[in-house]
Amino acid sequence: METAIDVSGLRMRYGADDVLNGVAFRVGEGEVVALLGPNGAGKTTTVEILEGFRMRSAGRVEVLGADPAQGDERWRARVGVVLQSWRDHGKWRVRELLAHLGAYYAKPWDTGALMAMVGLDAHADKKIKMLSGGQRRRLDVAIGIVGRPEALFLDEPTVGFDPRARQEFHDLVRRLDTTILLTTHDLAEAEKLADRIVILAGGRIIADGTAAELARRIAGEDEVRWTCGGERHAAFTTESTAFVRKLFGEYGEAIGELEVRRASLEDTYLALVREHETEAAR
Ligand SMILES: Nc1ncnc2c1ncn2[C@@H]1O[C@H](COP(=O)(O)OP(=O)(O)OP(=O)(O)O)[C@@H](O)[C@H]1O
Predict the structure, then answer these.
(1) Residue 61 phi, psi (nearest 5)
(2) Predicted ipTM?
(3) Is 14 a pocket residue for ligand 1 (Cβ < 6 Å)?
(4) Based on the domain organization, do 153 and 228 belong to the same domain?
């Protein structure tokens, strides 16, 4: 797989504060990677450096073969950015603004198709200041992808979305055939969308892998719940299939309401961050 985003030794210092302390990760072409981490870990800082909006203190950064700090117009046209809400142009109408912005690109989406993709076709002629928060966020996404970018940055894209808008947005992201770096605090979203998870904490990447790989690192236990003769039971085990087989072997028909809950990305994430904090405190 060709590399679309390549970061190594990335440092960022605000005043006397080292926020990024040697961050390194790669994103392959066409890959969707979720960048996770506690509040203040430096996710937005990292994304803004990759977008070319923020100057780094040190390190090597490459996005689509160029250093974002020196990205020219042609490079910028290949990169899609979804900003934290498009506040300008309040008097413009949705269709008008998307057509206008599309004209800056060589191969933009057709405005009608784009509005349908993000679920804004019913609001095509609404003024932007009249849109609801969620509709405005959909417009932000439309603006980010209007030029069919080869790499797309999504910084907490679904904050404020209702569950249906969120699901529609997830379907949209999965249909996009582009490299995506996404930050989110919604771990179900990360699990659903990302091929790979990268966790930033204490200024470094503390974990990098698929959700399943990270879960294995933690050696998480599954939780098994069942009822037997009307009584509720629960147990934790790493061998849930064997456990359940034994349970049925012993109690057969008396077993009811069986539930097996695997360690979620949330369990894994919390364990990894906790592990990192314990080590850092030593
Ligand atoms: N322009 C700035 N000047 C000084 N400090 C800054 C600046 N921007 C960010 N910081 C600090 O850098 C740290 C990382 O901020 P950043 O916004 O990158 O974190 P984040 O991981 O995106 O957090 P969140 O999950 O809360 O959005 C924070 O401690 C923040 O206060």
Answers:
(1) -135, 130
(2) 0.97
(3) yes
(4) no
Question: 237 and 146 in one domain?
Answer: no
Q: How many domains does the chain have?
A: 2
Asked whether residue 205 falls in the same domain as residue 262, the answer is no
The finding on whether 43 has its CB within 6 A of some atom of ligand 1 is yes
Does residue 145 share a domain with residue 55?
A: yes
The per-residue pLDDT for range 182-208, each reduced to its tens digit, is 999 999 999 999 999 999 999 999 999
Domain of residue 241, residue span: 219-281
Give the domain CATH number at 41. Answer: 3.40.50.300
Say whether both 191 and 155 belong to one domain: yes
- Tell how far the Cα of 55 is from the centroid of ligand 1, in angstroms: 14
Same domain, 88 and 74: yes
Which of 12, 18, 19, 84 for a ligand 1 pocket mutation test, highest count of atoms within 8 Å of Cβ?
19
Q: What is the pLDDT of residues 16-45, one digit of tens each?
A: 999 999 999 999 999 999 999 999 999 999
Q: What is the pLDDT of residues 8-22, one digit of tens each?
A: 999 999 999 999 999
Find out whether 146 and 105 touch, Cβ atoms under 8 Å. Answer: yes
Q: Are 20 and 11 in contact (CB under 8 A)?
A: yes
175 and 232, same domain (yes or no): no
The reply to whether ligand 1 has any atom less than 6 angstroms from the CB of 39 is: yes
pLDDT(84) > 70? no
Angle at 50 between CA 135 and CA 132, to 5 degrees: 10
With left for phi above 0 and alpha for psi between -120 and 50, is residue 135 left, alpha or beta? alpha
Distance (Å, rounded) from C-alpha 30 to C-alpha 151? 8
41 lines ligand 1 (CB under 6 A): yes
